[in-house]
Structures are given as structure tokens and as C-alpha cells.
Amino acid sequence: MRLFGCSHDQKGARAPKALSVVIPAYNSAAVIEHTVHRVAERLAGHDVEIIVVENGSTDGTMDICTRLAADWTPGPVSLTVLRSEKGMGNALRTGAAASRGAHVLLTADDLPFGFDDLDGAEKLAAGHDGRLPEVVIGSKAHPDSQVRRGALRGTLTWGFAALRRVILGMRTGDPQGTVLMDGDLMRGLVPGLVEPGFLFTTELVYLAERAGIAPVEVPVRLSDDHASHETRISRADVLAMGMGLFRLRARHRDGGRLAWSGSASRG
């Protein structure tokens, strides 16, 4: 049984893969091998690809990835290792552009939500004859999500969400969660994305919203490891990201509504 039902591209041809999982890897030597094997185990038996994109690591991340790729057993779950310039956005853009999946999942090197995002997507598909919304987000902002935050982290998260609403008019509660998107849609949007860092998925979801698409957010549980760590984002970082939102708005101000006929093409 194929993940999320049938997989076809815009022209009706069968997509090479049902799902592409893009994992950015920066100084990820401590977690990347375990993460790749977890994903492969979760998706065993499905026609999927794992794309790891190393981006400027200074530890042994690339050596581990190279070994994993060399030792990988051919089968329905494939592994590709790529490299990009430093920056999470650069890595995600590189992986998304290279993807071949009918759907593409952008996640993190340590799977902060486990597989709650995929589980939520499968429930959505099961209720709609195997079809997914064009954008599904593993969202910390969902009212049913279990996300334990300290006071500072909660305040900074609320502040940045408010900035997104005011500056960009975004309706999505957490565009910086994990993003599962129709593959044709994502590959069509990627050429217009330039954010090199943490704002990449915000830019991606913003353009999807401007195309008239309403992302569906599903609940997630933040892993205990993440919940126990203090945020590394400071008030200054939030200010810098807020300025980035102004930059993002100015960049796409004249873009108008993007033409996306993916829903119509799939019937």
C-alpha cells in the first residue's frame, strides 16, 4: 500500500517516489545516523527517498553521511546525500529541488516531533480517499499539541507569531514546524525562495498562502530532549527575524497571486 494513496505528477504520470524526506544536517554527527535509520524503519516497504543535505559542518557529519550512503542497501527506501552552502534554508532548498516525491517532507536532523507529523497526515489522507491537503504542517501552535516551553521560549514564540501576522498577514500558526507539501507545488515554489536560514519555511508557507492555499496544521508532541533544552534564540534573534519578515514582504510584494493549478490537474 502506497503512502498517502496514489502518486502522480501534474501530467498524470506516475511519480518516481511516493515521498521525499529532506533532512538538513549541520554539525549533526551525534544524531544523523540514528535519525536516518529511524526514518528508514518508519517508512519501510514504501517507495520513498531520504535526502540528507550537509551544509557546512565542522564535525564528522559528512563522513558519517558518506559512509551511510556507501553502505545503504538498495530497496524501496533510497538514500541520497547532498551538500549545500551553510544555512538550514540553503539545505532545505537544495533537497527540495532535488526531490522526486509526490509529497515532500521537510524535517530536522533530530526529528523533534518523532513521526507525529506523518501520523497526522496519514489520518487526514485516510479520511479523504487517500488524498492529502496540498500543505500539512506539524504545528506547535495546534491546540492539541503537547509542547512544554519555558517562559522565555513561550514569550519569544508568541512575539514572533504576532510579527508574522502583522507584517505578512499569515494565517498559519506555525510555519516553522515540519512541512509536508505536494511535491509539484514545492518544486514549483522553490525557485522563488531565497531565505538561507531559519526563515526558509516561513517564506515557503507564505508563498503557498499567497497562491490561495490554506495549510492544514496537525498536532505534535515535542520530544523530551527538546523540551528540556533552553531556547538558543535570543530577543535579538527575534528582532533580526522580524526584520527578515519585512525583507520577505518587500521581496514578494509585486509577485501577486501565484498561479498553481495542481489541484485541478489532479482532478
UniProtKB/TrEMBL annotation:
Has keyword Transmembrane helix?
Answer: no
Listed InterPro entries: Glyco_trans_2-like, Nucleotide-diphossugar_trans
Domain of life assignment: Bacteria
Question: Which keywords does this chain's UniProt record carry?
Answer: Transferase
Coiled-coil spans are none
Query: Residue limits of the Glycosyltransferase 2-like domain?
Result: 20-112
Which molecular function term from Gene Ontology is one that the record holds? transferase activity
Instruction: Mention one GO biological process in which this protein takes part, according to its record.
Output: protein N-linked glycosylation
What protein name is recorded for this chain? Putative glycosyltransferase
Which species?
Answer: Rhodococcus wratislaviensis NBRC 100605
